[in-house]
Write a structure and sequence with these properties.
The protein is an alpha/beta fold and about 150 residues long. The chain has one domain: Collagenase (Catalytic Domain) (3-Layer(aba) Sandwich), CATH 3.40.390. About 45% of the residues lie in helices and about 20% in strands. It is globular and about 35 Å long. It starts with a strand and ends in a 14-residue tail after the last helix.
Length: about 150
Amino acid sequence: MFTIDIADQQSDLPLDEQRLKDAVQAILAEASIAEAQISIAVVDDPTIRGLHRKYLKVDEPTDVLSFVLDRGESSLEGEVIVSAETARAAAPRYSWPAEDELLLYVVHGMLHLVGYDDTTEEERNEMRRQERAHLSRFGLKERRKEGIRD
């Protein structure tokens, strides 16, 4: 059973909460997670900047942060925090709507929660492949060459 809570704490973008939940559910199912408690927070740049500074010691806004709170063999509790403001600003560079950019951030954060990483080139390539596969479920083709910038 999955519990997915979405906290919309911004006013930059209208949210399609079901679309975000569908993406989360697909990633959890593919990762063979049977039970999950996932929190998605959609925030503005000042909020994500404060969290980025507090937890990663980087004093600037970012697109997505993810935190594993508890992980078992087939269970997961975690948080994904995404910036709607960053999505709105970045989307025109990639010629797609801000809502699609935001979905990419949620997908990226969830992939981190289920165990994907992107610190090496090989890991980054696999992360991008997974992003493309999950976005394609929504009829989207990622329009950037390198995916999320970490």
